[in-house]
Design goal:
The chain has a domain of 114 residues: Rossmann fold, CATH 3.40.50. By secondary structure, it is α/β, with parallel strands linked by helices. It has a four-stranded parallel sheet, with helices on both faces. Helices cover 48% and strands 12% of the residues. Strand 2, helix 4 and strand 3 form a beta-alpha-beta unit.
């Protein structure tokens, strides 16, 4: 290249990886993830699940957004142990009337009867996304109206940490 060409063009040296190096790095990463899976999966699981903390309360709140019979069974066991005298089951409400949806109401009634819950009542919740936060605000209004001072939240295991944080935040704004 002539002298004037260096003002218009340049040459550069570039090092590129081969497909063998890329494949080797992928294999090492996969082996590392597989060999350490016990450590990080248990850490993730612990971060999702809330520690069980049961003390005598005024009310049991069954988070019934994804209907689960085991929640009703656990609430019935808490009632039998005289931890709380009554339970509250939020169910989906009709948008126009605010009355409980027939299907949600029937499912909740069947599960509560089958679990042999003593005292429980339905609370119609108008479903607006995000459901947990809006439901917590509607439940807060109910708790203020009924003068409930403490409650036990019964929810699914992998929802427990998230639900606990939501209800603590919303109910702290009393």
């Amino acid at each position: 290249m002539t002298n004037w060409g260096r003002h218009l063009f340049y040459t550069r040296q570039c090092v590129k990886t081969t497909w063998k190096l890329r494949l080797g790095a992928l294999v090492v990463a996969a082996l590392t993830l597989a060999s350490t899976s016990r450590i990080w999966t248990s850490a993730i699981a612990r971060s999702l699940v809330c520690a069980q903390d049961v003390a005598p309360s005024d009310l049991i709140l069954i988070e019934n957004f994804d209907p689960n019979y085991l929640l009703f069974e656990r609430a019935a066991a808490l009632q039998k142990d005289r931890i709380a005298p009554r339970a509250l089951v939020p169910v989906q409400a009709w948008q126009d009337s605010g009355m409980p949806n027939y299907i949600s109401q029937a499912v909740a009634e069947v599960m509560a009867r089958h679990a042999r819950m003593a005292a429980w009542e339905l609370l119609p919740i108008s479903e607006v996304e995000p459901i947990s936060v809006n439901a917590a605000f509607q439940i807060r209004q109910y708790l203020l109206r009924e003068n409930v001072k403490s409650l036990i939240l019964v929810t699914g295991g992998f929802r427990s940490q998230r639900s606990s944080l939501i209800y603590r935040t919303v109910l702290a704004g009393r």
